[in-house]
């Protein structure tokens, strides 16, 4: 159980969030359902009043939260200032988009309830106004027609229709507009649209500006009204049966009503300002100058960009957003940094995976004849596109050196964050950096084709050599798994079985064929490190994440002195 | 990212609109709102739109993920042939269905959402898209060749492919080929 909490930290966080939601809903439901202030309002509207107000409170809370998880600079700041606190706390910041989606689902659900309740409210208010119901309802609806009285029923005309009322009141009009904006945002964020037609998703999501603008003014009409105390007090329990004698009976003066103070803007103004700063910062980053240091095109269609930017400071395993105005001035694409903090530049490896990346590679390719340049500020003279860089932003891999033992799992191109880590290990080793807490690193690389090994093999080779020279060969254990292989590969390996280095990568470690047997691997790690805290890091597909997460729970020991596995994931 | 297929978004939007229309209609009928007949129409139209839109169309490029249990809907929708395939027809149909919703408050949201879906479908139609069903392609079973009756020409045990000697009849081919390129170590 304890391990489950450790490995599913977000769930604890979600429980807290859900608890607050439930509390707000129940609290406001009961408030509007039982408070004497709203006795007359309830007489007109019934329980639909509570059903409208309780979701409203939950909506306020969630609209406050929805912008925060997408402020990546804010998250970086929080991560930085939480350095003292536990890593499980910081780890939650990586699941920001999951949280964003959860909050969005809650907003959609509460909007539905809120809207349905108000549909009923408007209809019933209109009916009361037309005198369809009992005498008290009619009397209450007619309040405010004469001087010195304040109205309870916001429908002031007897000739209007619910539709006309909604489209002429602030609350109604803004409500319809922001609900429509929300519907468009939700339909265009469905998995199939988001994954395949990102532009549609991205542009439509900017309707959030309309949404928040409408939301701020939604309550300004003060339509939901409650009774205010008068002198002498209006005794509702006695007077509600004799609406005829209001104003004549001394204990029943004409009741006075006032609308509630609009609160939504107080909830959302803070996050809105934070988000504005976030976008401003992104814009500043966009206009900052970035120079090329080196461009390498690998045969496996992977483009390596080495860039330099003033004041750029990175940590291992972080990622940056890259923008290329020549392709699209609005699109920012995330890439994991593959350089180490110790280097005087930063680099990314970009694989051709879609339109944007394909265009970028073509732009840097210049006909395939000149594969690389090595001069700063060469870019402009060669007509290379200008680049914008936002970041770096932190992810879990930052914590690798905090664990005594680290298991790194990279699948396919997902190996990139670990390139940075392994490079950094190499540099830290050279300098005998005291910050290096790690005693042992297990590195698993799952890959489909031999091609992709080549651009990374250089690095591993260098590392291997260095470690052997220093007699620290045990520090890094790496295993390569080739998942796409055929008979000719196997035969090839059989022939060269006795050689010292691997036939494919030229490394000391032999390449394995097929997928790793995780049970065996975890068992081995546990056996070798019986008392350690092991951090498991993955950059790869969702299915693998699930498997590893389960294994982490399975192989963690309840005894705090024994081996524990913590799971971290990086996923785009 | 590839070319945008508007119909995919239109489909999501129309499905949502159908649900909203249906919900609005149910509220209107259940609450016996003034003009609840429009709400009753909304229930029918919402149901119809949901059923029409539930089967997701096939993407022109890349993998198409079907919605859970959409198969029988796909078959029904496909049965109407060119009528359901053409997105101009859908745009018109949705526009027509949305009109009665505008006459009462409960269905106004459904009406506007469906109107938007209609507009997106129109843009899809203008971009030359049309609906294609997602159906499982039957695996073509290759007939077993006649050669199965003959004895194997190269029976096991066999050495790895690279080590296999060529047949002696083929003198040129019989020359030994290195399984691996030979590189001098420098």
UniProtKB/TrEMBL annotation, chain A:
A GO biological-process term: defense response
Signal peptide: none
PANTHER family with a match to the protein in the record: NADPH OXIDASE (PTHR11972), NADPH OXIDASE 1 (PTHR11972:SF203)
Transmembrane regions: 12-32, 44-68, 102-120, 164-188, 200-220, 265-284
Keyword list, A-Z: Heme, Iron, Membrane, Metal-binding, Oxidoreductase, Transmembrane, Transmembrane helix
Domain of life according to the entry: Eukaryota
UniProt-recorded name of the protein: FAD-binding FR-type domain-containing protein
One cellular component (GO) term of this entry: NADPH oxidase complex
Entries under Gene3D superfamilies matching the protein: Nucleotide-binding domain of ferredoxin-NADP reductase (FNR) module
Swiss-Prot/TrEMBL catalytic activity: NADPH + 2 O2 = 2 superoxide + NADP(+) + H(+)
Gene: NOX1
GO molecular function, one term: metal ion binding
Lipid bilayer topology: Multi-pass membrane protein
Keyword Phosphoprotein: no
Alphabetical list of InterPro entries matching this protein: Cyt_b245_heavy_chain (IPR000778), FAD-bd_8 (IPR013112), FAD-bd_FR_type (IPR017927), Fe3_Rdtase_TM_dom (IPR013130), Fe_red_NAD-bd_6 (IPR013121), FNR_nucleotide-bd (IPR039261), RBOH/FRE (IPR050369), Riboflavin_synthase-like_b-brl (IPR017938)
From TrEMBL, chain B:
Listed GO MF terms: heme binding; metal ion binding; oxidoreductase activity
Compartments, record wording: Cell membrane
Domain of life: Eukaryota
Keyword tags: Cell membrane, Electron transport, Heme, Iron, Membrane, Metal-binding, NADP, Oxidoreductase, Transmembrane, Transmembrane helix, Transport
TM region positions: 12-30, 36-54, 103-126
GO cellular component, one term: NADPH oxidase complex
Chain segments carrying region Disordered: 146-165
Keyword Membrane included in the entry's annotation: yes
InterPro entries the UniProt entry points to: Cyt_b558_asu (IPR007732)
Pfam families in alphabetical order: Cytochrom_B558a
Assembly and oligomerization: Component of the phagocyte NADPH oxidase core complex/cytochrome b558 complex, composed of CYBB (heavy chain (beta)) and CYBA (light chain (alpha)). Component of the phagocyte NADPH oxidase complex composed of an obligatory core heterodimer formed by the membrane proteins CYBA and CYBB and the cytosolic regulatory subunits NCF1/p47-phox, NCF2/p67-phox, NCF4/p40-phox and the small GTPase RAC1 or RAC2. Interacts with NCF1 (via SH3 domain). Interacts with SH3PXD2A. Interacts with DUOX1, DUOX2 and TPO. Interacts with NOX4; this interaction mediates superoxide generation.
Role noted for this protein: Subunit of NADPH oxidase complexes that is required for the NADPH oxidase activity that generates, in various cell types, superoxide from molecular oxygen utilizing NADPH as an electron donor. Subunit of the phagocyte NADPH oxidase complex that mediates the transfer of electrons from cytosolic NADPH to O2 to produce the superoxide anion (O2(-)). In the activated complex, electrons are first transferred from NADPH to flavin adenine dinucleotide (FAD) and subsequently transferred via two heme molecules to molecular oxygen, producing superoxide through an outer-sphere reaction.
Protein family membership: Belongs to the p22phox family.
UniProt-recorded name of the protein: Cytochrome b-245 light chain
Organism field: Denticeps clupeoides
């Amino acid at each position: 159980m304890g391990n489950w909490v450790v490995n599913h930290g977000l769930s604890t966080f979600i429980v807290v969030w859900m608890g607050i939601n439930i509390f707000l809903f129940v609290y406001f439901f009961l408030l509007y359902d039982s408070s004497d202030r709203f006795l007359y309002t309830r007489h007109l509207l019934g329980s639909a009043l509570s059903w409208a107000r309780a979701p409203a409170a939950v909506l306020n809370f969630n609209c406050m939260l929805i912008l925060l998880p997408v402020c990546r600079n804010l998250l970086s700041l929080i991560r930085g200032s939480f350095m003292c606190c536990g890593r499980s706390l910081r780890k939650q910041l990586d699941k920001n988009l999951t949280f964003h989606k959860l909050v969005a689902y809650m907003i959609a659900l509460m909007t539905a309830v809120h809207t349905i309740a108000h549909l009923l409210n408007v209809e019933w208010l209109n009916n009361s106004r037309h005198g369809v119901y009992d005498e008290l309802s009619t009397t209450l609806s007619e309040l405010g027609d004469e001087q010195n009285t304040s109205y309870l029923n916001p429908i002031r005309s007897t000739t209007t229709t619910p539709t006309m009322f909604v489209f002429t009141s602030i609350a109604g009009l803004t409500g319809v507009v922001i609900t429509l904006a929300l519907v468009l945002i939700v339909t265009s964020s469905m998995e199939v649209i988001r994954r395949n037609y990102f532009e549609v998703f991205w542009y439509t999501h900017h309707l959030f500006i309309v949404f928040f603008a409408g939301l701020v003014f939604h309550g300004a009409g003060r339509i939901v009204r409650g009774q205010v105390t008068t002198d002498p007090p209006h005794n509702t329990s006695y007077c509600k049966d004799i609406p005829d004698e209001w104003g004549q009976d001394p204990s029943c003066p004409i009741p006075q009503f006032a609308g509630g103070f609009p609160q939504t803007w107080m909830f959302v103004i803070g996050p809105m300002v934070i988000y504005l700063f976030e976008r401003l910062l992104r814009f500043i980053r966009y206009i900052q100058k970035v120079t090329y240091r080196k461009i390498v095109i690998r045969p496996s269609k992977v483009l390596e960009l080495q860039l330099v930017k003033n004041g750029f400071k990175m940590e291992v395993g972080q990622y940056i957003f890259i923008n290329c105005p020549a392709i699209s001035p609005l699109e920012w694409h995330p890439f994991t940094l593959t350089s180490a903090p110790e280097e005087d530049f930063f680099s990314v490896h970009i694989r051709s995976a879609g339109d944007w990346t394909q265009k970028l590679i073509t732009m840097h390719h210049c006909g395939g004849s000149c594969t690389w340049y090595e001069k700063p500020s060469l870019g402009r003279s060669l007509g290379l596109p200008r680049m914008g860089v936002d970041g770096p932003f932190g992810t879990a891999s930052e914590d690798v050196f905090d664990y005594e033992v680290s298991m790194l799992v990279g699948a396919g191109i997902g190996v990139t964050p670990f390139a940075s880590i392994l490079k950094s290990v190499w540099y830290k080793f050279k300098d005998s950096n005291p910050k290096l807490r790690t005693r042992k690193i297990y590195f698993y690389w799952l890959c489909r084709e031999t091609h992709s090994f080549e651009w990374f093999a250089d690095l591993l080779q260098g590392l291997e050599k260095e470690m052997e020279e220093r007699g620290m060969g045990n520090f890094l254990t790496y295993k390569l798994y080739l998942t796409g292989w055929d008979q000719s590969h196997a035969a090839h390996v059989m022939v060269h079985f006795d050689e010292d280095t691997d036939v494919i990568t030229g490394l000391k470690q032999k390449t394995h064929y097929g997928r790793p047997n995780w049970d065996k691997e975890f068992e081995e790690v546990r056996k070798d490190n019986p008392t350690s805290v092991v951090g498991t890091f993955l950059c790869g597909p969702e299915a693998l994440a699930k498997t590893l997460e389960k294994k982490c729970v399975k192989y963690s020991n309840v005894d705090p002195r024994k081996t524990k596995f913590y799971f971290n994931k990086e996923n785009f | 990212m590839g070319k945008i297929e508007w119909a995919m978004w239109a489909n999501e939007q129309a499905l949502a609109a159908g649900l909203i229309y249906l919900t609005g209609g149910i509220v209107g009928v259940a609450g016996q709102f003034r003009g609840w007949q429009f709400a009753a129409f909304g229930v029918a139209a919402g149901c119809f739109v949901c059923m029409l839109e539930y089967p997701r169309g096939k993407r022109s490029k890349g993998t198409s993920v079907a919605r859970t249990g959409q198969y029988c809907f796909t078959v029904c929708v496909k049965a109407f042939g060119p009528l359901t395939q053409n997105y101009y027809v859908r745009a018109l149909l949705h526009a027509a269905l949305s009109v009665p919703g505008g006459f009462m408050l409960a269905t106004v949201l459904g009406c506007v959402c469906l109107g938007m879906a209609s507009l997106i479908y129109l843009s899809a139609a203008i971009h030359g898209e049309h609906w294609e069903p997602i159906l499982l392609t039957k695996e073509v079973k290759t007939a077993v060749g006649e050669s199965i009756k003959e004895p194997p020409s190269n029976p096991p045990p066999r050495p790895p492919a690279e080590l296999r000697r060529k047949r002696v009849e083929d003198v040129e081919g019989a020359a030994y080929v290195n399984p691996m390129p030979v590189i001098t170590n420098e």
